[in-house]
Amino acid sequence: MHFKWKYVPPTSDELRLAGELSEKLNMSPLLTQLLVKRGITTESAAKQFFKPQLADLINPFRMKDMDAAVDRLNDAMGRKERVLVYGDYDVDGCTAVALVYKFLQQFYSNIDYYIPDRYDEGYGISRKGLEYAQRTGVKLVIILDCGIKAVKEIAYAKSLGIDFIICDHHVPDEEMPPAVAILDPKRADDPYPFKQLCGCGVGFKLMQAFAKNNGIPFSRLIPLLDFCAVSIAADMVPVVDENRILAFHGLKILNQNPSVGLKAIIDICGLSGRDISMSDIVFKIGPRINASGRMENGKESVDLLVEKDINEALRKAKHINEYNEQRKDIDKHMTEDANQIVSRLESQKHQSSIVLYDEHWKKGVIGIVASRLTEIYFRPTVVLTRDGDLATGSARSVMGFDIYSAIKSCRDLLINFGGHTYAAGLTLRWADIPTFRKRFQKYVEEHIQPEQIEAYLRIDAIIDFKDITKKLYNDLKRFSPFGPSNPKPVFCTLGVYDYGTSKVVGRSQEHIKLELVDSKSGVVVNGIAFGQSASARYIKSRRSFDIAYTIEDNVFKRNQVQLQIEDIRPRKSE
Fold it and tell me: Pairing with 148, which of 305, 346, 502, 521 sits 20 to 30 Å away (CA)?
């Protein structure tokens, strides 16, 4: 796929601010321009950005209902009541359960955890889960990454004498469940200043408040920050403000002294001895934690994450890795099926959204397929599968479009729905899918901007190869952790040539290993262009072209960098 390149040169004001910062920070104007583009215009803001401090975490008691949540948890422990930590079956839910359970278990033994089965129980609080709680004598449930819409279920639990503390980050409805405390920064009446926490982040804030209230040193929480980093990366929440602090310090733990369960996954992924990044979590660690919930039961992932014995953890990690291999096969076949359906549905190709359904698709993989289709077609996408008379689905969005609001506009057709701006889940009657598709498409057409359904590549700066040094790479690393709202900088170099040694590589000859020369400076740089072998013939013709890329460490040559090519574009003059 070729992108439209979008480069906005810095304004005179931005250049002035970047120049002032450059002197104060002893950093190149190129990099301080990147800071200014991110809204960082003062020396103190830059220092806070480069060295996020745990001391700058927001007081957890600023979150609405936090006092009530901590009081109820203290009461439960004082009365020796059984506590159940309950969570969603995705990465965010599993890491949240592992974090809360591991922390509380140090101080309290009458505690258990529960993850519902995606296929047998579905999303959120299930009747089976409540029966388990009642049967095992639970009096308090801490529910993580779900529960904000479970009005009937929590009312029923209350009638059984079971209280709930909700820790969620999804958008609430007008009617709130009758829980003893509802921790959700997206509540309209919540004054908490940072609204973009993930579910694990909300769970962490509850533990931070509990520790503060009970005189437990904050240092006891630090070893659990690796769960926060994994959750923030996998749930694709903005890596800014409080999320940046948690991710920054969580990555330190993940690299230096990860929990036993995560260490086992790191070993299975082949990441041992490497500097683990947010990208490694997104593409390697996260999918493996997700795999057990997608293929069988997410509880197996929590079993692994709370494991204390490394040999047992490695055994469990290998088992989960097998699920991941099965998941990849199913995902590949389903995506191929979906692509064929899209290609047959000429009308959908020209529409602003995609709604696909097939009664044979596996429920646990439809979210991944929706993500793949969104990446391929740049359309808000809903993928549905059959569950008796019902259809259950996952929705994924494109940058800047609120898919939750689009789904909410069809709420009279829906039995259940929930989510946030870029991802949502929904349930409706199978027979209502055609009506839903028309209504959803109409809403998207009326609200989406043309540029949101085009493949844009935002260029941060135009540079020459002589500017690419190990020092530049090391300075760029200080901008990490990268993610939504803090993307890895993309550079552009104009008029480059093949040095004569570039070649197609990969099992299916799908990538290009490049050696390029800059026509201006004559400097030669190595690069890799994943999935772009279609450009190989043009490159080998020795004609000039422009490249957009990120700057990465060269894992094969110490003290060298290489380019990861995002896009290749022939020179317009050619």
Answer: 305
